[in-house]
Amino acid sequence: MSSSYYTKDSEHEVDSTSKLVEKLKFFDEEREIYWYPSVVNMGPKGIIFPEGDVKNWVWKYAEVVEIPQEEQEQYPVPGKDGEYYKEKLDVNNATEYGQYEFLKACKKMGVTMDVPNA
User: Which of 21, 42, 50, 80 is 20–30 Å from 56 (CA)?
Assistant: First the structure.
């Protein structure tokens, strides 16, 4: 991910990003912008995120799964007494992809497609 806001002289640094994303940023000399690994949250489709450390990191894809009725009380909706989430991100069973397999994770999520003759 990048944007013209992420220049060397810009005040628009990503303040709330994770330490890993911050450490993995790199400066594109040609375009004069910083690039950051993306976190892709597609709501009901799940989330793709980087995990690990600078020398050994991977992409992870966590799908949304239903929470069994008997476990829902462990997941209360903030500010809504007696209401509980019925779904959650299954980060404990996230599928792992290599550093250069971001598109594979996107395909698994269902947010990309193959375009013939492109």
Answer: 42
Taking only the tens place, the pLDDT of each residue in 15-63 is 545 788 888 888 889 988 888 888 899 999 999 999 999 899 999 999 9
CB count in 10 Å sphere of residue 95: 16
Contact 110, 104 (CB under 8 A): no
Strands 87-89, 64-66: pairing kind: antiparallel
SS (H, E, C) the chain: CECCCCCCCCCCCCCCCCHHHHHHCEEECCCCEEECCCCEECHHHCEEEEEEECCEEEEEEECEEECCHHHHHHCECCCCCCCECCEEECHHHCEEECCCCHHHHHHHHCCCCCCCCC
